[in-house]
Amino acid sequence: MTLATTPQTKPLTDEELQKINAYWRAANYLSVGQIYLLDNPLLREPLKLEHVKPRLLGHWGTTPGLNFIYVHLNRLIKKYDLNTIYIAGPGHGGPGLVANTYLEGTYTEYYHNISQDAEGMKKLFKQFSFPGGIPSHVAPETPGSIHEGGELGYALVHAYGAAFDNPDLIVAAVVGDGEAETGALATSWHSNKFLNPVRDGAVLPILHLNGYKIANPTTLSRISHDELESLFVGYGYKPYFVEGEDPADVHQQMAATLETAIAEIQSIQREARVHGFTERPQWPMIVMRTPKGWTGPKEVDGKKTEGSWRSHQVPFGNIAKQPDHLRLLEDWMKSYKPEELFDADGKLIPELAELAPKKHRRMGDNPHANGGILLHDLKIPDFQDYAVDVAEPGKAIAEATKVTGKFLRDIMRLNQESSNFRIFAPDELASNRLDPVLEVTDRVSTAEIYPEDDHLSADGRVMEILSETSCQGWLEGYLLTGRHGFFTCYEAFIHIIDSMFNQHAKWLKTTRHIPWRRPIASLNYLLTSHVWRQDHNGFSHQDPGFIDHVLNKKAEIVRVYLPPDANTLLSVTDHCLKSRNYVNVIIAGKQPALQYLNMDAAIKHCTKGIGIWEWASNDKGGDPDVVLACAGDIPTLETLAAVDILRQHFADLKVRVVNVVDLMTLQPKTEHPHGLSEKDFDTLFTTDKPVIFAFHGYPWLIHRLTYRHTNHKNIHVRGYKEEGTTTTPFDMVVVNDLDRFHLVIDVIDRVPKLGSKAAYVKQQMQDKLIEHKHYIQKYGDDVPEIRDWKWPY
Amino acid sequence: MTLATTPQTKPLTDEELQKINAYWRAANYLSVGQIYLLDNPLLREPLKLEHVKPRLLGHWGTTPGLNFIYVHLNRLIKKYDLNTIYIAGPGHGGPGLVANTYLEGTYTEYYHNISQDAEGMKKLFKQFSFPGGIPSHVAPETPGSIHEGGELGYALVHAYGAAFDNPDLIVAAVVGDGEAETGALATSWHSNKFLNPVRDGAVLPILHLNGYKIANPTTLSRISHDELESLFVGYGYKPYFVEGEDPADVHQQMAATLETAIAEIQSIQREARVHGFTERPQWPMIVMRTPKGWTGPKEVDGKKTEGSWRSHQVPFGNIAKQPDHLRLLEDWMKSYKPEELFDADGKLIPELAELAPKKHRRMGDNPHANGGILLHDLKIPDFQDYAVDVAEPGKAIAEATKVTGKFLRDIMRLNQESSNFRIFAPDELASNRLDPVLEVTDRVSTAEIYPEDDHLSADGRVMEILSETSCQGWLEGYLLTGRHGFFTCYEAFIHIIDSMFNQHAKWLKTTRHIPWRRPIASLNYLLTSHVWRQDHNGFSHQDPGFIDHVLNKKAEIVRVYLPPDANTLLSVTDHCLKSRNYVNVIIAGKQPALQYLNMDAAIKHCTKGIGIWEWASNDKGGDPDVVLACAGDIPTLETLAAVDILRQHFADLKVRVVNVVDLMTLQPKTEHPHGLSEKDFDTLFTTDKPVIFAFHGYPWLIHRLTYRHTNHKNIHVRGYKEEGTTTTPFDMVVVNDLDRFHLVIDVIDRVPKLGSKAAYVKQQMQDKLIEHKHYIQKYGDDVPEIRDWKWPY
């Protein structure tokens, strides 16, 4: 292992140092101004109470450090014409990034009313954390950002996601020492084992050790220098340390260290691009240890503030009641000497303005941070070419995800050259039957590879790590920088990224109202190894609740699909991969299963999203006596098997089968753009007949979606009710009352006209259930007639 | 830093080595038998197809390693009379732990029908992964376990949770190299900065590097030895390496290394307990690198199997169709020489049985792994002593969580000596206003402490790390070993542990049906800094959906409380801390807010969980014209303010106010034990009057809970509809239509009898909303009359 030593030279001339420091002062000045001021932005008159915001919001602590890094990156971008974006991990660094994009001119170009003069500065200050203004985090509104602050821990995964397949890009990722404690961040350092210097860009992690969170010191700031160094060497990096409090000294250290780091990155890339990938390089990273709230007030009310957790948010408030606080604020802001930084109009003076890069090299204006600009459509073959032959419904057998795996394989092949498509999975690609993809690409690893490894190489485009957070974060970073992706995961464990999904959905919602943000590719989940086929893995693997979670987000963002077979899954997958700005959740089985629809029928069905399956119904030319609705592959199977039994016993019973692919159709049209009109819903479900709804997920979700519809009171839903263990596939549906026999009983219990035969059939169903229990306890497997049932008509 | 060197001695005599290896063979034999056999358990007749299970389920890969560690721990437990529990991190190690607890006799004591003879062994084999049998993971059914395999990543947090305040306990925590990639696990190594050798037990992490996950090599198995060593030194451990394939050699290494590790643990503890805590010790940990599927078939169908991902699950199946596989299985099982291990009856021979520890020293029978046995009630002062004085409803101001912070402070104080209560928070204790607790204890840290740190010491009982997964996992480990805890978190970010909550709730559900598992203390969440007071942190911090997630789990397990003020919060907190085997979710505000109920009224209200607030209603002696229902502190405030407006304008309107503390009361009694009867629900909500329901969370949750009730069609819910940004507190409710003015409009729109004044008042409400928008955009704060509104009657 190579331990890095801090470069000892002082690369900055005195003049450069002065200018860089002045630029930094300007950014700090603007940051404080945003937090505190409503007016008098240049302090050209004595500061008065009415110039100060009545509600003080925002976070100072991390901001000077973020500003410091920004100005130093600017220097290197200019010097070497670097293509760089900036990821601000620390949650509340909003004022810093806004200040810097304003200083470099981007902000005014994106928001014309925030002009580069005193009037614009006043607006800049006022809007921050102000009703109708901008949030206190780095946010979608912030030019140059692909990463919302707030929830923490995703700086590095977003950075790596941005760097994949962007060979010229350097992603500077500032990691807060608070967020470094999160699980998502702690494992994300290992992303370097998935980055290939030949084809990918670089990530330069900068761990910003300012020592404190809200109220506690940070873990990484309180371990020894040796341990810290070992930790990052262990993670595979070459750590450089920039440490101090004296700006002049730290400026020199940072300038020298960044020079070294950039040179090493370029040398690694040159070497790899000339000679090909040989072994994982030891990428540089920087540990920057500077005081929290650096350059802020040393003490407030006699208590240490700079370099303490007291600087985390607003270092002091209560300005109305403590006049000394007003003076403290004025003194603090004046310590940056705004009169030296801004001209008479309030514009940054030209000697400093020239420190910023130009046009798209400005980090606020780098097109990678507004990925929609760079987005190209995926090349997608005709999904109909992958159709499973379904001569008659319910007879042929296929593995839905395996079929879609072939479709994905060819998408992968067609876009190999444009390098804009990757598949993400927590070690589950093959388990989820998408392994046809491995015919054209590998799994990627730049760690050591053994000859016996299966489809593993530094060039692979399948990203597998047993970390759902890393998969999700990489994919988000990849999408936000204008590429396409696909995430496959076991259904139960996708909850691990519930909170990350929230943040991405919120980001998408917000960007829809920001005109300069261009649409990005949708985030597509294929959840398989789902609840109904987790009999072998048991109760811990059984949870279909991600849908419930997703549906709490804005209807304009989320889509949920439950294709019942292979051809419908193909059609839905094609649709999702072509969509923009959504989160699409597809749930489909991976096991060999009955196929119902040929391709024409599948396309028609998916286009409507919901429909009557005429071939399974016998209510033609009249009202049905009962509607059997189903959503999901296993519920569809059990529903059809129930229909089979009903037809055998009750020839006169008019049964209608409704299958739902697009779950959003069930909501009223007023609630979701895919929702059915009241009339269409009534046409399908009747206004007064019993509806037995077999659902993939928790049953109450169907009630939540349909409660406003006329016939809601007659809808009886079966679904997963949190019963399960290691058992047989059919027993899983039995213990949750979703099986064919229970469904038949449900019909018998609700349709009055069945007459004397009803009791007899009901008893027969109960006998079947008992017989099933005996059989599985004896043989450990399902009754063959049940297991091998096919649609007999 | 000190780098450990592998101890070079060979501590085992030949005889010991032979015996230990024989015991290991026995465990491996039983493991394979569980995966494959239905009958012929001792292979005393030639193996035939009918002896083999028709469905082969389970995981072999990790099992021999787990067995290997178990037998070596047994040796040290006996030798030094250690008090040790075993945490099996790798997901599917079920057969191994079952085999070992069977060999040591615990299993038969817990499950009498699984006797220690051929008949019992046959049952042991059959039940594994068999319908009606036991899961393939280490599970609640497994004696000695506090940790379900399946979802991965929590081995270390559970281990540390168990070790806290258990000074004599050594928790051996086997970490799979697959799960080591998860975020939760990657950050959990840092738990050593929270462990105090004076008062806590020890965790001995054993990273089991067997190289492969389902289909991929593991990250940590493919970095260099140097990096691996640095990583763990960086994490603060002294890593020892046990590596090899030859059992005899690895037995000696493991025996020597475990001796060393235990000696170091004991020396660290002795030193600290004699001289007090001085600095964080470098605790030992072990990296054990052995082949995946060790001792299994080297090759199957010509493909490498031992030492490959092909050993992950069942190394070969298809036994019915490939007779050579039947022979392979027989040869494999016979390679363990069962005839040397088990006597004529099928019982482990005495020379081997004596290797196991006795009674409670057996890891399967250690009482810490059945924590309910050790559980003592918390000493809890009378919560009424902390009552806020509420002379009249809706006039006094208090901070609810601050008040409860004082209650918690005294609980902490009273239980200081018994050392069985801790509070967990992701750096949010003070932010959530529970800081009174710091009057009697500190935050804990065994990392470096500076003089300016705030209430931080190695003796603290408040556990703060910016990792929700660590907080959750520690707490789970602490509860499962028979102690009490309290987790406070920002509401939005509790979603980070959604999936961990699932697993704990499933564990609780399962244990309810295992007679020997004793009830443990409930897992209590206090979610604050909630959605309605995240105006300053903005959209990313706004998500009240954890309730929705929680309610998908079994009704018998989950409870959700929304106390509207300080006294109700006290009462609810008291109730939750005394409860067993639940997950309790309490949601309450931390900001200064109106108080409504004096302590007597609060107790009555909380006991019922729901009720009419007579003092706010004017429907006495008759039916109301409208019901205004509310759940949550801010919805309650807005509802009362709306009632105030309604009374001013419509003196004749009969308004009933219903407040809900216990959300579960809204469900039908058939669905939840707290549910109201249909009659009681109708009495509160009427059968036909409009109900305007102001709810803390997503509005559809109320529909989901109430859709079966008579008056459901008239329930109109306002709640969070995913609108928000950085704004003012009142504007947060306005943008979600939950404010008093919208509520008044909702009433006007639904009550026909209001006459000609209705249109005028409605217009006035709309004017108020516009006025509010203008005001906040000008002043950045809410209109004082709105902000400072109190109940005027």
UniProtKB/TrEMBL annotation, chains A, B:
GO biological process: carbohydrate metabolic process
Keyword Nucleus: no
Enzyme class: lyase
Enzyme Commission numbers on file: 4.1.2.-
Gene3D superfamilies: 3.40.50.920, 3.40.50.970
Region (Disordered): 289-309
Source taxon at top rank: Bacteria
A GO term, aspect molecular function: aldehyde-lyase activity
Record Pfam families: XFP, XFP_C, XFP_N
Cofactor(s) listed: thiamine diphosphate
Keywords: Lyase, Thiamine pyrophosphate
Ranges where the Xylulose 5-phosphate/Fructose 6-phosphate phosphoketolase N-terminal domain occurs: 12-373
Span of domain Xylulose 5-phosphate/Fructose 6-phosphate phosphoketolase C-terminal: 590-791
Record's keyword annotation contains Glycosyltransferase: no
Ranges annotated as biased composition (Basic and acidic residues): 298-309
UniProt cross-references to HAMAP family, sorted A to Z: Phosphoketolase
Family assignment from sequence similarity: Belongs to the XFP family.
Protein name (Swiss-Prot/TrEMBL): Probable phosphoketolase
Organism: Nostoc sphaeroides CCNUC1
